[in-house]
Amino acid sequence: MTNALYGFVEGPTPLLISSPHSGTSIPAEIAPKLTELGRTLVDTDWQVDTLYAPIAERLGASMICAKMTRYAADLNRSAADQSLYAERKVSRVVSLESFDGEALYLDGAAPDEAEIARRIEAYWRPYHDKLRSTLDAIRARHGYALLWDAHSIREHVPALAAQGFPVLNIGTADGVSCDPSLQTGVHSVAAQQEHYSFVLNGFFKGGYITRNYGAPNNRISAVQLELRQDSYLDPAFENALSDKSADAMRDLILRMMTAFCGRAAEIWG
After folding, report:
1. What's the pLDDT tens digit per position in 56-112?
2. Is 211 inside any structural domain?
3. In CATH, what number is assigned to the domain containing residue 182?
4. Which residues contact 64 (CB under 8 A, 6 or more apart)?
5. Which domain holds residue 78?
6. pLDDT in tens, 11-46
7. Is residue 1, in this structure, part of any structural domain at all?
8. DSSP codes, the chain
9. N or C: less crowded end of the chain, CB within 10 Å?
């Protein structure tokens, strides 16, 4: 199913892949208010939906991908703007600044609280309604549901972290969003390879989606994977996939997801 806000493909297995930050459409009423930087959509999770589509098909997973930019409304933030990390600044559900701290809106054009509330209803709510209904349907059909929230980030974002990020950033909200056995399965695959740096619950512990929907006691386990973009994009072509790098990353993600699904089937299937 495709509409203006998100694309959705239903699969036969208990796995749902979410790509909330890969959208590049700018709503017509927002575009004239953005700065030149804002219109470049600099904080987009470039090509994550394209990277994961063959994996979803291979695994028979359902997949939901945002079409609208995160600057319309950030689908991985709380609608109530609750902080995800007490120790550091986190962007709001409607960001006014880029990750680098630069203004996204022209002078006098930043959204007020009424506009933010409108955007939550127009852009944020439909995605989450579909996420929730899909997870509920999967759990009703299979007895459990698995959520993989797919993200990416630039190698260096000094305003967020002085050091560069690892390639693979696995987040389970410090184990709260995912059954321990499933977390171990995913982490073990990352630990058994030597090509990519990795961390579990490091800088990226999982955003709102992982934390809100992951409920292993109710047989819903959620994992966020934040990839470093230079691990799958082509440096010679702006925001384009590198065929060789993307294929290698797909192979690793497929193995991580296979472990995730396999462990779930062992304990819940």
Report:
1. 999 999 999 999 999 999 999 999 876 565 555 567 899 999 999 999 999 999 999
2. yes
3. 3.40.630.40
4. 6, 7, 8, 16, 17, 18, 19, 127, 130, 131, 134
5. 6-268
6. 999 999 999 999 999 999 999 999 999 999 999 999
7. no
8. -B-SSEEEE--SSSEEEEETT---B--TTTGGGB-HHHHTTTT--TTHHHHHHHHHHHHT-EEEEE-B-TTT--TTS-TT---S-TTS----SS-SB-TTS-B-B-TT-S--HHHHHHHIIIIIHHHHHHHHHHHHHHHHHHS-EEEEEEEEE-S--TTT-SSPPPSEEEESTTTTSS-HHHHHHHHHHHHH-SSS-EEESSS----HHHHHH-BGGGTEEEEEEEEEGGGTB-TTSTT-B-HHHHHHHHHHHHHHHHHHHHHHHHHH-
9. N
Answer yes or no: is 171 within a domain.
yes
Residue 133 burial class via C-beta count within 10 angstroms: exposed 0-12, middle 13-18, buried 19 and up:
exposed
Cβ atoms of 233 and 225 within 8 Å: the answer is no
The structural domain count of the chain equals 1
What pTM was computed for the model? 0.96
Q: Give the tokens for residue 73.
A: 């409304």
CA dihedral 64, 67, 73, 77 (to 10 degrees): 30
